[in-house]
Design brief:
This protein has about 350 residues and is an alpha/beta fold. About 40% of the residues lie in helices and about 15% in strands. The chain is globular.
Length: about 350
C-alpha cells in the first residue's frame, strides 16, 4: 500500500440514532432517515441537514474505501453538528456517551484500522472532565471539540480544566470549526462552510495563543482542522498586532504568535500544493498530518493525493502521511500493524 498513512480527520455516525428529541423533551437533535439502501438523510427534527451514504456509518465500507485510497488507518470523530453544546448539560452528556461508546466499539472490533476521538459536553466542564476520563477508560485516545462553546472562545478560563485534564490524561485534542460566526450574513453560496469555517479556526487558535493556554499546558497536544483555517495566512498580521498593541493583545500572555509555530499540529486539508508547501515551511513537516474530512465532499476526495504529488522525498511524505499523526496521537506505528 505504499507510504504508511493515517488520516486524522474523518467523521462517523452510528447507523441508528435514537430519537433524542423525544427522549429529552425538546428539539434540535440529529437523526438519520434511511430512505433507501446505503443512503440516509441527516435530519434536524423535520429539517433536512445533509445526505450521507453507508461510508458514514459502516466500518467495512470505510475499510474497503481506505484500501482503494491506500489509507492504512483512520482517526474517527463524530460529525460536528452532533456536539450539541446548546443542549442541557446532562442531555449532552448522555448523547456524548452514546457517540463515544459507538466509536469505541468500532475501534475495539478493528484496532489495526481505527483509533477514536470522543466528544464531550463542553457546556459543563465538570461533566466534560468526567466523560473525558471515561473516554480514556473505554480506549479512546483523545477528543474532538468545536472552535467555541456557545460563543465562549477556547482560551477562556472556564474551559481550562478540560484542557488540563487532557494534558494529565495524555489525551490529544482535535479542534474542528462548527456553528460559524457571521452566519446571519452568509445565507447564500455555502459561505458558512467556505468562509466561516476558516475564520472560526483562526479565531480559536488566536484565542488559545493569546490566553497563554499553550504556556500553561506545555504537554497538551492539539491539532486543528482544515490546515488551521485562515490562521497560517494571517499569522504575520496577528504577530504584528501583538507587537504594535501589546496593551490589547499581550494582556494574558507575552509569548508572540510566531513563537507558537510548531507548538501544535494542522491537518493537510488545504486543497492546493503551494499552500501545503507554505504550511510545511511554516511549522515543519512533523506538525502537518494527513487529514481528508472523509467522507464529505468538501474534503480531499482521494485522501493523501495532494501529499503524494508534492516534490518531496519519501521521508518527508511519510512524515506528513503518518509520522506527524503518530506524534500527535502519542502512538507508535506498531499499534496499527496487527
Amino acid at each position: 500500500m505504499g507510504l504508511f498513512s493515517i488520516d486524522i480527520h474523518t467523521h462517523i455516525l452510528p447507523e441508528n440514532i435514537p430519537d433524542f428529541g423525544r427522549r429529552y423533551g425538546y428539539g434540535g437533535f440529529i437523526h438519520l432517515d434511511h430512505h433507501r439502501p446505503g443512503c440516509a438523510r441527516m435530519m434536524m427534527d423535520d429539517k433536512f441537514f445533509r445526505e450521507v451514504q453507508a461510508n458514514c456509518w459502516d466500518p467495512r465500507t470505510r475499510m474497503a474505501e481506505c484500501d482503494t485510497h491506500h489509507v492504512h488507518a483512520q482517526v474517527l470523530s463524530t460529525v460536528p453538528v452532533m456536539f450539541s453544546y446548546w443542549a442541557r448539560p446532562n442531555d449532552a452528556l448522555d448523547l456524548s456517551m452514546f457517540l463515544n461508546d459507538h466509536i469505541a466499539g468500532i475501534v475495539q472490533e478493528h484496532p489495526g484500522r481505527f483509533v477514536g476521538l470522543g466528544t464531550l459536553p463542553m457546556q459543563d466542564p465538570e461533566l466534560a472532565v468526567k466523560e473525558l476520563e471515561r473516554c480514556k477508560r473505554i480506549g479512546l485516545v483523545g477528543i474532538q471539540i468545536g472552535t467555541h462553546v456557545e460563543g465562549v472562545n477556547l482560551g477562556e478560563p472556564v474551559l481550562l480544566p478540560v484542557f488540563q485534564a487532557c494534558e494529565e490524561l495524555d489525551m490529544c485534542v482535535f479542534v474542528h470549526p462548527w456553528d460559524m460566526l457571521g452566519r446571519e450574513r452568509m445565507d447564500k453560496y455555502w459561505l458558512p462552510w467556505l468562509v466561516g469555517m476558516p475564520a472560526e479556526t483562526a479565531l480559536a487558535i488566536t484565542s488559545m495563543i493569546f490566553s497563554g493556554l499553550f504556556q500553561k499546558l506545555p504537554k497538551l497536544r492539539v491539532a486543528f482542522a482544515h490546515g488551521g483555517g485562515a490562521f497560517p495566512a494571517t499569522v504575520a498580521r496577528i504577530q504584528h498586532g501583538f507587537e504594535m498593541r501589546p496593551d490589547l493583545c499581550a494582556v494574558d500572555n507575552n509569548v508572540g504568535p510566531k513563537d507558537h509555530l510548531g507548538r501544535f499540529w494542522f491537518d493537510s486539508l488545504v486543497h492546493d500544493p503551494a499552500m501545503l508547501q507554505y504550511l510545511v515551511d511554516l511549522v515543519g513537516a512533523d506538525k502537518v498530518a494527513l487529514g481528508s474530512d472523509y467522507p464529505f465532499p468538501l474534503g480531499e476526495l482521494t485522501p493523501g493525493e495532494l501529499i503524494k504529488g508534492m516534490p518531496w522525498d519519501d521521508a518527508r511524505k511519510e512524515m506528513v502521511m503518518s509520522g506527524a499523526a503518530l506524534q500527535w496521537l502519542g502512538m507508535g506505528k506498531e499499534r496499527f500493524l496487527r
